[in-house]
Structure formats: structure tokens, C-alpha cells
Amino acid sequence: MYPRPIPEDARVQRALYLGGVALVVILWLLPLLAVMLTSIRSNEELMAGNYWGWPQKFSLIENYKAVFEQTAMLRFFLNSLLITIPSVIGVLILSTLTGFVLSRYPFCGSNLIFALFVGGNFLPAQIMMIPVRDLMVRLGLYDTVYALIIFHIAFQTGFATLFMRNFIAALPGELFQAARAEGASPFQTLRHVVLPLVRPALAALAILTFTFVWNDYFWAIVLTQSDAVKPVTAGLNNLRGEWTSAWNIVSAATIFVALPPVVMFFMMQKHFVAGLTMGAVKG
Amino acid sequence: MSRLWRRNRHWVTPALFLLPGLILFGTVILAASIETVWISLHDWDGIGAKAWVGLANYVELVDDPQFYVSLKNNVIWLLIFMLAPPIGLALALIVNQRIRGMRFLKSLFFVPLVLATVTVGVVFGWVYDPNFGLLQLVFSAFGATAPALLSDETFVTFAVAAAALWPQIAFCMILFLAGLNSLNDDLIAAGRVDGARGWRMLRHVVLPQLSQVGFIAIAVTVIGALRSFDMIAVMTSGGPYGSSTVLAYQMYQESIFSYRFGYGAAIATVLFVIMIVFIAWYLNGLIKAERSNV
């Protein structure tokens, strides 16, 4: 272990250490804590200039109610779910298939195809913006959730293929030899050997893809226009323009947008961290 | 028929498995990226017919003062982002203890990483507000007035990039924590026996073992810096007076707001070339690392 672990019997040291780290965490998250505090402050207090003092009155429920009732955030939230969930499912299916083939069926050019998936994944979004937008316009999908779903599935498949290919390649080879010896078809191998074993990888991939797609802003503003299809990220930025002085409402909406990925992260923290490190380190 | 199928299924099924992902990725991502280069040789408003103009867009770009502003800002982003790996390493060293409660505290450090960049932008817009922001609070504690960073042409890019550093540091921290957990305990113990402590231990025993993770952290950070778009769109819209644009943002502006898709595509192509150099460097490093592991 490095740095040297603080010994278990050094109670005082441990307590001091924990206290110190907790202080650093508070400083680290201070901007976010400030927004959380503002989201429960009343409008009158903000008008009176009480931005940082302890709130005299807690308006948690009023502010969040205002977000739901007076803004379109709930609609945006629903749109985000309609975009994100199908995208995640699509990515999981496609990348399990591509990862399986690229790891277990070497053929001439398979390495090149793999390199294309990996390299394409690092391209900045702006490089494909104009043709993708044009493609969606011509397909009649511009300003629908399908445009975003198709794009996100395509783009995330790059990273996900890398991820699944490395995971399946690391599974014990004997399993696949045994399957072949028994005369199992590729489909049967996929169904009875691969699928039961890749569940942890799929969990990690699902949480990562969910976060990436949910948090996307660029494609949301490039491929959608109307409130009826806009996801929360684009919605939040619009809201900020419309409610310039109502910082408590904007803050409440901000927390509302941040909630799903943060909750997902805390629920599946182990998978998230393992996935991110594996994706970057092994990639 | 079924005999033909049986004889060929060992390659037909895998090919069918591979095709959907490959076709989708190939057309939507790869072909589109290349098509951008083609569009950059045209004058196009995004709706009508494309008119071939050869390299005229690039010639115009070389004389466009805004292009140099964007380029300069991309460099500033890159330099500021280079702070993320060392700070991430420092934080990782601070929290790498196995004590009850540390798991939760560690995960709190990762929170900025799961926030949308829009969220980070809104949060820092609030931090930088000269009337009531966090920064103003710090300045007034010293009896000074906070500068209006986001409306100052000199400081705006630094301020936006510094805000974007927040999640990037968290990312580097996760990578270095994984690196610290796979250190060779024998080497550390041997270092301790030899009396290596503090800085010398870190420099000569620990850092060499983190070189691969460090490389990845730097590469991911470089690519992240070049990709920057969301924060600028949310915090400044490229302003004041276009002083905080980067190539990615200028490209978006030229295409979506000015309907100059050919010109936008030319800017994207320049960004593409810069990125390809870094991506090639990164992939090359990874392949080398993978070979040395085997």
C-alpha cells in the first residue's frame, strides 16, 4: 500500500485524517453545495440579497414544485428517459455482438475493424456534426428523439465494442473450446457461454452509457429544436435564459437534472469506477 | 439448403453479428467524419446545392482573425487541462487509505464527473457571478471586489477552462487510484527497507510504476481539452466579442448560426487533423504498452 497506511491503533491520527479529508471534500464540492443551498431558498430572500447566509425559511417544496408546474422540466426529463433508455439497450446489444465476434473469431482485417471502432470513439463530435445533421434531416428524423437515439447508439458502440471485446477476450478460452468441441453454433455459444458471463461487464457498460447519453448537450442542440423532444440538458440551459433572476428555481432545476446520474452512480459505484478504469486503462 | 447453412454457419453467423454495429458506426460516425472533409471544399448553406470552391474555405480561414483567437484559446485550454493529472494524482495520494468511511468520501470526489457539463457550466456561472457568487464572497473577505471573469476578454477562457478542470481532475483521480491499487507491494517494501521516504519514494519507486496510468491520464486529458464545447456554449456563447471561442465552438457558430456549412466543415477538418495526431500518438502508446505486458 502506498502511501503508508495509518495504523489501526492510531485512533487519534485516523480521526484527524478522516476529518481532514472530509474538509477537503467539502471544499471540493462547495460550488455544488452552494447550488443545493440556493435551491431551497425563497425568492424574497434572494431579492433581499441573502445569497450565502443560512436560509430563514426553507422553500424546498415550493421551489421544486415551481420547477414541475411552471417550467417544462418534467417534459424534458421524460424526453431524456425516452432517449437514454433505448440508447443504452441498443448499445448493449450491438456491442455484445461486435465484441464477441472481434474477440473470438479472428479473421483477416478484424484488428483493423477493431482499431476503427477505438479510434472513431475519440473523434470530437464537431467533426461529424454537419453530415450527421444533414443525414437526419434527409431521413426526416431531425427534431425527433429517434435522431438522438440512432446517433447515440452509433457513437457509443465504438467505446462499448472496445469494452466488450476486451472483457470477452479475457474469459477463459477453454469454455469456448469446449463449446466448439460439443458442436455448438456461434449463436448457441453466444447464448449459453457468453451471455451468462458478461453480466458484470454489461452492468458497468449500462451505467457508463447511461451517464454519457444523459449528460449529452451538444447533440441535443444540434439534432433537436422543439420542447417536445428536447432532453434535460438543453432544457436546463434554456430555462436559465428565461428565469435569469430566479436563481432558486434554476438551482432546483439544476439539481433535478443532476439527480439521475448521481443516484445511478451511488447505486452502482463499483461498476462505474471499474468500467471507467477498464475502458481507459485496457483501451 | 440446410447442408449449405451448416457448412457455412461458422462464419456467416459471426458476420451477421458484426454487421449491424459495423454498418451503424461506419456510416454515422466514420463516413460522416470523412464527408466533412469533402464538404469543406464547397460553399454550402446547409439546404441548397453545394458549390465547389476548392480550397477557398481554407484560404479564407488562414486570414480569419477569429481562427487565431480559437487556436490560441485551444492552446490555453490544453495548458490549463495539464493541471488535471498532477492534481488528480495528489488527491488520489491523499485519499488512498483503507479506513471505515473512506469509500464514501472517495466517491464524493467523483461526483463532478457524473454531472452533465451543462450542470457544471450553470454551477460555475453561479460561482463566478460578480454580484453574489462564491468568488465574490472570497474576494470580499479580503476587502476586494471580484472581477467579472466571464465578461473580461483576457480572463474569460482561463475561467471557463478552470471550471471544466473540475470534472477532469476527478477523472484523473479515478485513474490514479486504480494505478495506486495495482502497485507492486514488494517494490514498495524494498524501497522502505532501503530508507526511501517521502518525495524520493514517490519519485523513484512509485511514479515509475504509474507511468502507464499517467500516460493514459495525460492522453485522455489532451483529448478532453480539444473536445471542449459544452462549457463554452453554456457559460459564454463564445463571448464577450468572440474572445472565448475554440475551434469546436467557432465551427458550430459558423454552421448553425451563419449557415456557412462549408466554412464550418473546413474548421472541423483542421480540428480533425490536430486530433488525429494525438489519437495516433495515444493508440501507438497503448499498443506498445500492451506488447510489453505480454
Textual characterization of the structure:
- The complex is a heterodimer of chains A (283) and B (294).
- In chain A, 75% of the residues lie in helices and 0% in strands.
- Chain A has helices at 11-28, 30-38, 43-47, 60-70, 73-104, 110-120, 126-138, 145-169, 173-181, 186-197, 199-215, 218-223, 232-242, 247-267, 269-281.
- In chain A, α5 (73-104) runs antiparallel to α13 (232-242) and α11 crosses α15.
- Chain A is flat and about 75 Å long.
- The model of chain A has no long low-confidence stretch (mean pLDDT 89).
- With 294 residues, chain B is mostly helical.
- Chain B has two domains: 1-39, no CATH class; 55-293, Orthogonal Bundle (MetI-like fold), CATH 1.10.3720.
- Chain B has 14 helices and two strands.
- In chain B, a hairpin with a 7-residue loop joins β1 and β2 (51-52).
- In chain B, α8 (156-181) runs antiparallel to α11 (211-227).
- Chain B is flat and about 70 Å long.
- Chain B starts with a helix and ends with a helix.
- The model of chain B has no long low-confidence stretch (mean pLDDT 89).
- Classes of the chains: A mainly alpha (283), B mainly alpha (294).
- Chains A and B meet through α1, α2, α5, α6 and α7 of A and α1, α4, α5, α6 and α8 of B.
Describe the SSE topology.
The complex is a heterodimer of chains A (283) and B (294).
Chain A: H1 11-28, H2 30-38, H3 43-47, H4 60-70, H5 73-104, H6 110-120, H7 126-138, H8 145-169, H9 173-181, H10 186-197, H11 199-215, H12 218-223, H13 232-242, H14 247-267, H15 269-281
Helix pairs in contact in A: 4-14, 5-8, 5-11, 5-13, 6-8, 8-11, 11-15, 13-14
Chain B: H1 2-39, E1 42-43, E2 51-52, H2 56-62, H3 65-81, H4 84-95, H5 102-114, H6 117-127, H7 134-141, H8 156-181, H9 185-193, H10 198-209, H11 211-227, H12 230-235, H13 247-257, H14 261-293
Antiparallel strand pairs in B: 1-2
